[in-house]
Write a structure and sequence with these properties.
This is Glycosyltransferase RgtA/B/C/D-like domain-containing protein. It comes from Pseudomonas helleri. Keywords: Membrane, Transmembrane, Transmembrane helix. The protein has 21 helices and 16 strands. α7 runs antiparallel to α8. The relative contact order is 0.06. β1 and β2 form a beta hairpin. The protein folds into three domains: 340 residues, no CATH class; 82 residues, no CATH class; 133 residues, Galactose-binding domain-like (Jelly Rolls, Sandwich), CATH 2.60.120. The strands form four sheets. Strands 7, 9, 11, 14 and 16 form a five-stranded antiparallel β-sheet that branches. Strands 8-10-15-12-13 form a five-stranded antiparallel β-sheet, with no helix packed on it. It has a four-stranded mixed β-sheet with strand order 5-3-4-6, sandwiched between helices. With 652 residues, it is of the alpha+beta class. The longest helix has 37 residues.
């Protein structure tokens, strides 16, 4: 008996040491995060403000005292991107009650950060608003890691690491936004459902519903499983308390807003949602190359493919389905409810993200069983396992670099995959009009009421917006099309009633190309030669334009209507200067046109090959060996890498 007790005690100590090392490892990451410059993203103003409301007034709404505290935080300049008090006061006018105001997002997330700050204060640690949220994130991540180890041992920790550290979720680790909060609680709920611990799973999912009410419906599923599938099992006192907690968590959001404003959720007053308004685009949260989870999680693609191949090899699908059929029912309802909820947003391409849509991350926890299956059935033969582990490590490292917390937001330009599809295979996929406009126009979420059309990178797919008195047309630099001519072509045709995609014919495209004549073409702001700036250029200035980094490209149209269409060569002169002494190589079709140093302002003659316009465009590539930022040489605070500045080009 003593030997049994001794063994149990030794096992408990080993287990406690594992928990200790898990917490310490996560703590090391969170000790690094405060060294990064805090940046406000998305709805961060609201969460900081509600934190201060709890801290200053012990109230879950804003009043004059909490607004003053927020203004002090804004004036401290400790968090980049913050908005001033008067902007915040006018943010949600529908959610005001006399001198008090609420926001579209619930206060529990901010309250938990406030609770962490008060807890640390007991031990003499005074946390600022941003650090308090980092402390909350530490407890959330550590708690879910503990659950993963408790349920699935060291393999559970490995799965949790792959899904959290090697995914876009890493970017949110230091962002005051509810994505990490939702991910941690939802992942805990999924793991517990998969382990048939239904009561505890319902509680975690109910807590997630405080910030996203649709999770209340999902939380009901494991709650119902406990009553239906385990009806003969007696309830423990612990389960009773968890059920009470689940009920309170589910009701907290709707009851609070109903008592304050007479509605179950603030979106019904302040806007931001239209039930099922974008249901036809439900697939984008999973598969859209810009917004979707799968295309933006390369490691996830690899792990899913490995899971499928291992299931086929082991012939274990039928057995797995029989033993986990209720989990698959839960997953199906999770998908249906979440896709409907996400498709009810009126803002598909929202910010506060490193690239993909924030809503896409809701579906990340559902992949836990697949990743766990891969880890449990990982090939044992070294000849396969070692190279495979190396590939996973390389992809994981690339993911960390891409989704590093220090990186900026990224929702106003296409992903490399999205750009490749629209450039080479535009017929393969057409995204929603909002996504196409904001990713390919260069305008981001900026609302331009006078925008008439957006031309895609293939130079043929055109998005046309209806309405009167609209003139703005955006054209990619590589397309060599005059935006004013394209706008005239659009307005000459009957305009559609809704946002419509149209495909320009080759003849239309040729007609829209600029007609080049001999003469001088300025590259200054609004210059007549800007059509030639294809890639590698900063925004034109009132004198000309700087190259970006090490490479830049100039392009000339080469169609039958051009004056040089029947010639073999033409003379071209670049008027330019270097930022310092720059080593420059200029090539065309890998043939060298110039190789030397450029420093002072002057003219550089080039002999350009035309070859009777055998190709539709002439590409001239400029390579700069060592571009320099003005800040590096103490000339100014400009951090752009500058190589050469080009004033104009002349065709003879």
């Amino acid at each position: 008996m003593r030997e049994i007790k001794r063994n149990i005690s030794a096992q408990s100590k080993r287990s406690l040491m594992v928990y200790f090392w898990i917490a310490l490892s996560i703590l090391l990451l969170f000790m690094y995060l405060p060294k990064l410059t805090p940046q406000r993203v998305g709805d961060g103003n609201e969460y900081y403000a509600l934190y201060l409301a709890w801290k200053e007034t012990l109230r879950p709404w804003m009043n004059d005292a909490s607004y003053q505290a927020f203004q002090q935080l804004y004036q401290s300049n400790t968090i980049s991107g913050m908005m001033p008090e008067d902007w915040l006061r006018g943010y949600s006018p529908a959610l005001r009650l006399r001198d008090e105001s609420d926001f579209n997002h619930f206060w529990l997330y901010s309250f938990l950060a406030f609770a962490v700050a008060r807890f640390c204060q007991i031990f003499g640690l005074l946390l600022g608003p941003h650090t308090a949220f980092l402390g909350l994130h530490f407890f959330l991540v550590t708690g879910v890691a503990f659950i993963a180890y408790h349920l699935y041992g060291k393999r559970g920790i490995l799965v949790f690491t792959l899904m959290t550290l090697f995914s876009p979720m890493l970017w949110f680790s230091d962002k005051v936004h509810t994505e990490l909060f939702t991910y941690c609680l939802t992942l805990a709920g999924v793991m517990l459902v998969y382990s048939r611990k239904y009561t505890c799973a319902a509680l975690f999912l109910a807590l997630a519903s405080t910030q996203n009410p649709s999770f209340a419906l999902i939380a009901f599923i494991p709650f119902a499983f406990r009553f239906c599938l385990e009806k003969n099992k007696p309830f423990s006192i612990f389960e009773v308390f968890m059920m009470i907690g689940t009920a309170f968590a589910v009701l907290a959001h709707p009851v609070y807003y109903f008592l304050r404003f007479g509605v179950p959720t603030p979106q019904l007053l302040a806007g931001g949602a239209s039930l099922g308004g974008n249901l036809s685009n439900f697939y984008i949260w999973l598969f859209d190359p810009d917004l979707g989870l799968i295309p933006n999680w390369p490691l996830g693609i690899l792990l899913i493919l490995l899971a499928v191949s291992l299931v086929v090899k082991n012939k274990s699908f039928t057995q797995s389905l029989n033993t986990n059929k209720y989990f698959y029912l839960f997953s199906s309802i999770f998908l249906i409810v979440s896709l409907f909820a996400n498709s009810s947003t009126t803002n598909l391409n929202s910010g506060a993200t490193p690239g993909l849509a924030r809503y896409a991350l809701w579906y990340l926890p559902l992949l836990f069983p697949a990743v766990l299956y891969v880890i449990n059935n990982f090939p044992s033969r070294k000849v396969i396992s070692y190279p495979l582990a190396l590939v996973i490590a390389i992809i994981g490292y690339a993911s960390i670099k891409t989704n590093a917390p220090s990186g900026p937001e990224g929702y106003d330009s296409p992903s490399w995959l999205s750009n490749a599809i629209q450039l080479k295979l535009p017929w393969l996929y057409t995204p929603p009009a909002e996504v196409f406009k904001e990713r390919f126009s260069g305008l981001g979420e900026t609302s331009y009421e006078n925008i008439r059309g957006v031309l895609g990178p293939d130079c043929h797919k055109l998005l046309i917006f209806p309405g009167e008195h609209k003139e703005l047309v955006t054209v990619p630099a590589r397309c060599l099309i005059d935006s004013r001519s394209l706008g005239s072509l659009i307005n000459e045709s009957p305009l559609p009633l809704t946002d419509t995609f149209y495909n320009l014919s080759d003849s239309q495209y040729d007609q829209l190309m600029p007609k080049v004549t001999p003469g001088k073409y300025s590259l200054a702001t609004s210059g007549n030669g800007l059509f030639a700036l294809t890639s590698g250029w900063w925004t034109p200035e009132n004198w000309g334009v700087w190259t970006v980094g090490r490479t830049a490209t100039l392009t000339l149209p080469c169609t039958a209507s051009q004056y040089y269409a029947d010639q073999d060569k033409i003379d071209m002169t670049l008027s330019l200067h270097g930022f310092g002494r720059q080593k420059v190589t200029i090539t065309q079709d890998r043939k060298e046109l110039f190789d030397g140093h450029i420093e002072a302002q002057g003219d550089l003659p080039l002999r350009v090959n035309i070859d009777k316009c055998s190709s539709s465009r002439i590409l001239i590539k400029i390579a700069i060996k060592d571009p320099v930022a003005p800040s590096d040489v103490m000339q100014s605070e400009d951090r752009r890498k500058l190589g050469i500045g080009v004033y104009s080009f002349t065709l003879k």
